[in-house]
Amino acid sequence: MRPTQKDHAWHLASEPKSDQETGRVTLNIAEPITDEHYARVGAVTAFLAEALSSSAYAHLQQRHNDLKEVLAAVAHAFENRLQNPETIQPLSGKLDDLLSTLRGFDDRTSHALSQRYNKNSGQYTAFKQALSYEFDHNFAYRFSWHLRNYSQHRGNPISRIHAGSRLGNDGSIERYCTPVFDSTELLANYPEWHARVRDDLRTINGEFPVEVVVDSLMNSCTRAYSKLLLAQRTQIVEAIEDIRAVASEAAADDEHPLLAYVKLATITGETRGGSLSLSPIRVDLADAAESALRQAVVIVSEH
Predict the structure, then answer these.
(1) Taking the CA of residue 288 as centre, how many other CA atoms within 13 Å lie in the half-sphere pointing to its CB?
(2) Domain assignment present for 160
């Protein structure tokens, strides 16, 4: 929690990057900043974190990565004849985690946008329209959205794991495994499918691979997230500029920019007595936001 003593203030500060190599700690304290200036830095940093590293999309991406790791582990086990029930068991749980987080991607993001802007804002509308587009145009997205209901009522939706061998390009024998859904089983076990998903499953009329579906789902969510970032481009760019401006005031290129909460009295850049609280100025977050905007432009333009 932020200290409240009146004899302290937030100051711009810096630490030489070379200190990380030498193990020394050299803190340079510069001019104090106003409480309003400090609050602005905190607000734009929190905004970028909410949009990037702590976003519902980042959480969804992690759950997708978790599932991919389990799929890779299952494949490795089959390829090396190491398969056992313990290898396969985590698969359905990780799929459930991904499906639950998919709902959270919509709910949490929508709530954050309604709080930051409002439900009539262009940002909120852009996100909801992006999700609607994916539902209308991508089978994997609409299927996965309703697969969570199936999983809750009927259990593991993965039908089986096909394993076999094939001749590689170099003449070697390659073993493989492919977890699959079965549309006929899904239809027979659960009559409450959404009408469009029911039609999709009838058209498939057989087995289809789990990994292809979850990767296509993630691509859908990435497109929707990219459209959301671009809808917030003005606010994101302003936040980037604010963070970089205060960082350039605090530190040179060979220094780490910091904010320091110190006693008002300083001598030659060194504090005398009292507590000291340091907070990094998140230039890394500003850099990540700039990169995310560039990637979003590419992703949206390619679709």
Answers:
(1) 14
(2) no
Tokens coding 271:
């504090």
Instruction: State mean pLDDT over 63-84.
Output: 83
Residues composing the chain = 303
Look at residue 3 in the predicted model and tell me its pLDDT: 47
pLDDT digits (tens, 9 = 90+) for 78-100: 777 665 656 677 899 999 999 99
**Alpha-carbon distances of 23 from 26, 64, 271, 276, rounded to whole Å:** 10, 38, 20, 19
Q: Which domain holds residue 296?
A: 8-20+35-48+235-302
Q: pTM (2 decimals)?
A: 0.87
Cα(40)–Cα(239) distance, integer angstroms: 9
Give the DSSP per-residue string, 247-279: HHHH--TTEEEEEEEEES-EETTEE-SS--EEE
Whether the predicted pLDDT of 173 surpasses 80: no
pLDDT tens digits for 6-31? 567 888 999 888 866 666 777 888 88
Q: How far is CA 302 from the centre of its chain?
A: 21
Number of other CB atoms surrounding residue 156 within 10 Å:
12
Q: Nearest 10 degrees: CA dihedral of 171, 176, 182, 183?
A: -50
Which backbone phi and psi does 201 adopt, to 5 degrees? Answer: -65, -35
Whole-number Å distance between alpha carbons of 233 and 239: 10
Number of domains in the chain: 1
Residue 120 lies in a domain: no
- Pairing mode, if any, of strands 266-267 and 255-263? unpaired
